[in-house]
């Protein structure tokens, strides 16, 4: 069956109604604009930087306007997203910090609604969303590498005493590392594992190489780990599909991936609680490492003050003095500690549900591919995108800002749940 026939066979009456207007270009463009609006440094537009926040809110409101078009199929595909948004929304209403928490929640909510809408769409439209996001992400990475060559004084900034890192077009090297590792993984897996023409694989290999260079120039240790792990997962998924193991059951592989995700997210708690002793070696990274440990400990302390619904998404500590009065809009460099402190046990349950659903979806999509005699290129592309988005986001969520205040990561992770086509049995 052709890709077009497959897509037509999956459409509901609502999808057929939406296709000529909303689903054709609105969802892909909104996804790309959301990614670009939060990934690009507002200072790039100079004195006009003040227009960036209103533009971001226009995009978020536009994303939320897709709510009436979300079908039950979209909610069924993204039930874990709906559960996470519901749990987080409950804590926003109950912890007494609505004024500071709602703006943050609205950004997450917009990403979730758009992802649920994406799950409503036909295969061809979901592929278009992934392509738009990859084009936007690759543009950020390639543009940053070019900037590092033509204007290094603008592209690099000094962190600490000795660490000059690539910011490029982004406001932080961690954001640079996130997008660079994602681009390097997706295009690298296409170059290494696909059956496309030599020229297309060469093109993808060059883009992946530029992504790897950006990770190195950003001096992103998390990005290096994410890139290695993601390529390993891509290779492992390819072998699983070819071996035929997934045709029978995905339970055992899911338990393995779910255990790895839980281990990576719980590790900062174990370190902060001194269950795992860590000795900080004196090098250029020692300040970063010791600072993270101190932040993790403070996050657990904040969790103890309101364990059920947390202290609010916008309430946390000052960035320069850990003993100072609380300041707004900072994060705990650990996604689980972050939500324990800010949304309590209720929010943490929603988060864990969300984290564990993505590998199940990726494996279910891989099982669908394994069961087909000849899988479509679109389904393979979505599988590679979803697996990369899942792996890179989890790696950055463990010790960085992903799923905390790096807002494009929410959309990436949500989409890795709703975009792939899954086996139904």
Number of domains: 1
In sequence order, what are the helices and strands, one letter per element?
Answer: HHHHHHHHEEHHHHHHHH
Annotation field: number of helices? 16
Low-confidence stretches: 1-22
Q: State the share of residues found in helices, binned by percent.
A: over 70%
Main location: membrane
Keywords: Ligase, Membrane, Transmembrane, Transmembrane helix
Organism: Bradyrhizobium zhanjiangense
Domain O-antigen ligase-related: 208-351
Question: What do these coordinates show?
Answer:
This protein has 16 helices and two strands. The chain has 425 residues and is an all-alpha fold. It has one domain (12-270, 328-418). Strands 1-2 form a two-stranded antiparallel sheet. Strand 1 and strand 2 form a beta hairpin. It is globular. It starts with a helix and ends in a 7-residue tail after the last helix. Mean pLDDT is 88; it is low at 1-22.
Give the secondary structure arrangement, pairings included.
Layout: H1 3-9, H2 13-39, H3 52-64, H4 72-77, H5 79-94, H6 98-120, H7 123-150, H8 152-155, E1 156-159, E2 163-166, H9 173-193, H10 198-217, H11 221-243, H12 251-272, H13 286-305, H14 335-371, H15 377-399, H16 407-418
Would you kindly provide a brief summary of this structure?
By secondary structure, this protein is an all-alpha fold.
What attributes characterize this protein structure?
single chain; 425 residues; mainly alpha; 16 helices; 71% helix; globular; disordered N terminus
